[in-house]
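hi! just following up on the protien thing from before. the input was this:
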Amino acid sequence: MNPLLAFLRPNAWRVFHRNLLAWKTFAWSSITINIIEPLVYFVAFGYGFGAYFSFGGQGSLLQYLGPGMLALTAVNAATFDAAWGGYERLTTNGVYESMVTAPVEPEEIAAGEYLWQAFRATLYGAIFLVVIAALGLVHSWLALLCLPVLALTGLLFAIPALYVAFIVKTPEHLFYYFALLVTPLVMFAGVFFPLDRLPRWTQYVAWATPLYHAVSACRALIAGTPSLSTLREVGWLALAIVLVVWLPQRVLRRRLSG
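and the predicted 3d structure came back as:
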């Protein structure tokens, strides 16, 4: 089955709906955790460190952090749930095994998970966008275009997280993924500070980081200054999704048929 066409199949949306129903039982706690934590960092760094320096032409630290934390909120919402939730549904509670007896194809299960993580990223990102708008940090209605960017970002980060969740032997192995890959990518993505004064190699690392492109796109849209470069950032995210979308689906088929 074509991994991209799986998004259009009804069973993929049934998997999405199943996850939505399960999420409703703890929705408020999930929203609280995923919003309060980045908001605390945002306020602490923005008002704390921001009282001591600014970025000159890029405005205050608070203004700089807003788009970065917005994109990071989407990343966290999708990555953690994809990794830990995917592992539990495959290995611990047998949800996926029950689905394939329905029958639902493994590609449809993966596509449903992709849709779910894109939804989570958009939802939590939208809430954070409302917060920074209330603080006067949004300068254009074009900021609403951040929502599809957040959906792509969440999807792109969910795909490798699901892949790792499907191949690890124990849940403790997931910590290696976050410590050795996700955290370094976040630090070199332009979320907390500009990269123009760092060594050139860090800028190459940043360009290879999906979050860097998401942050750049959100920063331009929130400022109301999108350009052709912004379109290229979004295109980078979409192309990366096409290149890696098949990875979790192939592993999931092997695990469920083995």
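The longest helix spans residues 61-92.
The mean pLDDT is 88.
cheers
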